[in-house]
Amino acid sequence: MFKQPTGSLPQAQGPLAGVRVLNLGGVWAGRVASMLLADQGAEVLEINAPQRRATLDEAMLGRGKKSLVLDLTSESGQRRALCLAQGAHIVMDNLGSGRAARFGIDYGAVAAGNEGVVYVSIPGFASDSPSSEVPAWEGLIAASGGVYTDLNTIDAAIGGTPIFTAVPMASGYGAVHAAIAAIAGFHARILNGRGGHVEVPLADALMSSMSLLAMQVEGQPQRFDLPPIPKEMREVALPILRDLADHLSAEQTGALKKYMSQFARAQFAFHECADGRMIFLNALDHLHQSKACLQAMGVLDDLLAEGMIVGTPYEEGGEGDNISNAGGLSAFWNARLKVVLAARFKTRPAAEWEAILQRAKVPAAVVRTADEWLTLPESLAGGNVASLSDPVFGMVNQAGRFVTIESGSTHSPDLRPGEAVGAGYEWQPATLRLPVPVASAAQKRKPLEGVRVLDLSNIIAGPVAARTLKELGAEVIRVDPPMPVAGPRMTMWFGIDVNQGKRAMIADLKTEVGQDILKRLVENTDVVIHNFLDDSAERLGISADALAKLKPGVISCQISAWGGPNGGPFKDYPAFDPVLQAATGITARYGTLHAPALHGIASCVDYITGFTAAAGCVQALVAKRLGGLGAHVRTSLSMGAQLVQFPYMVRQVGMSVADETSRTREASGQNARGFGAGYALYQARDGWVFLACRERDLSVISTRLEVAATVNAFAEAIAQKTFEQLRHLLASVPGAAVARVTRLDALRKSSAIEAGEADVVDTSGKSVVMVRAPHPHGTAVTLPIATWYRCASKTVKLLSAAPAPGTHSVEVLKELKYAPAQIDAMLEAGGTASQWQLLKHYLPH
To answer: For residue 37, what are the contacts with CB-CB under 8 A and spacing of at least 6?
Structure first.
């Protein structure tokens, strides 16, 4: 539980007011991480190189910061940077491998004069891994982590041609983890006065986004396979086809894709509407939404008359006619649903269907470009998109504040433009009273040990936020309702990853018994996380006001689908990751506006939203430690969808065609290969590779390849060389490198280790680490582990396997001081339970 505060905050200051942050380097990850801290009132100073050229994303990445131009290759620049670092509470090092040490501003140098500094390094690959010297190009990391091979699940299954994506997942996820590491480290410093060094490799951070795609559940039922194709096809034919993928013709590949598309589900798909615009629908395997979708579209009664039924998503077996169990639908009924919905969508424009479905609380959205989202009246009204006057680019529409924190003493400040400062800039006078250092043994504690978290959320984003706090040392209790409404993929299969490390109980918050359990739980809790909409939160007694009455000073965190800092017209509508991909421009970027493509399952929006929520919770904990009150933390999938594609979520108001040159380059479509000859996917003699270099080095590389510096010429030359030959050819070109394009199944095979009896894994000398361990569902599961926070110990403590709902109900009730007779009566009355009655198997067959 919380100790007495060690300082004080003036009324209604930003949660991080008085916290000094120095960001070294103009690379994306560090800039985004420090922006997330500046958004909450931290004093952020960013050091940039003299030759750096500003692009339009500067209007967002530089907001709320002071920018100082320093030449770190000069002795005077290095002395000035070291002086500033020794006055900071947090230092972000995104300079690149070994450069901070060469400049004399690495952790050792800074800590020598600033023992309490929290120093966060953001390399491309772990500093002690075999890839440590590989330059941190986004494309090289993405190629090494399955991004170009596994986001499109059909192409992943058949081993198709790699697909480039301009969405910078490694930098986006690396930034959020760096922000979490920084503020969690500062939380620990408040308690013991000591700082420390944390490394957040972008390659590891990327894997935190790919967990569900990388996860392997041995012997899982077919209904959980992605894509849901017959087992004999998956286990026999596809491995052969993947080996032959490079030898298949375009016609053969097209026929395979057409065959596999027949297994897609009509209620999880893009549909063309009467106006030619596309809409994405996500309403499958849900007790209410599957039925409500068909009802709102006016086809439910006809389908029921034809022989379909409305059952439970947890049905096992059956006749293949259950609307609520998409995974169990027969080929006939699946095809019939596709025909019916396709015809119905053609009767109205996309925007009309969007409004109809949203009013029915069915997750759906019109497929839009990022520019359309940035100018959408509803986005602007909710503050999801903010208009900010930038000193260089003028008025710029951009993603709004990603996390909003509110309390009587703390409030996220208004967004403000960045400001250039001169070489004489000094930190603002100290306002924080921090304790003097204590015994070094305290450093062995995780930063959130002693913090108690109540997880009332479901699906992915909320559970990920709670699991992240557990990884940082918190104790987490998960509370499920007695009757699930979401299907087993969303609760049990997703849960294998996102519910690790938690204890699980069941409580019916709609009953007096459940409300009494809630009261006792909250009284013993520091942070409550949920993803209910406002009206449901009010009914269940878990709104911010209701929780504050149960325990003054509690921190509540609400994750919604559409809510912005100001709420907005969409705030009361439900949605899932793919819906927000469609709404904010991701599916149009990965495909096209009229042929959109999903950018992975959950790996795009859900996880980054959960990590952002976790960052907000820790920021609120810091504010409370410094003398503030409890707080209400809010974020949403709509904000996470913008954060993951941050370079493109800026639009100059009144932008002309000429002004477009200031925007960050991007490539789109399923045929994209990169940004040009020096940053692209190529097929070498022994497999696909990704080449990255600076523009000024293109001429050198073209000379060595003995071809012109064009994509086609490079492709022909690279096709004649092996990966090792290419690596040798680039070895002496500064900043240039080549990486193999690696599939997740190959990465899992090369990086997975067996969990031993000890629950600690040594990560020394390893980059990505996955662990294969027994699981309560009956077989083994392989998952990435949290190597995205690497400390001096070089070890990661494994989280316990995700338990089934209700596993710890009785144990937790005893801790809440209920007598045995009371517990028996509560179990009998149904206010609590030790299992879901619908759940016959951990993963329904």
So the answer is: 16, 19, 21, 44, 90, 179, 182, 183
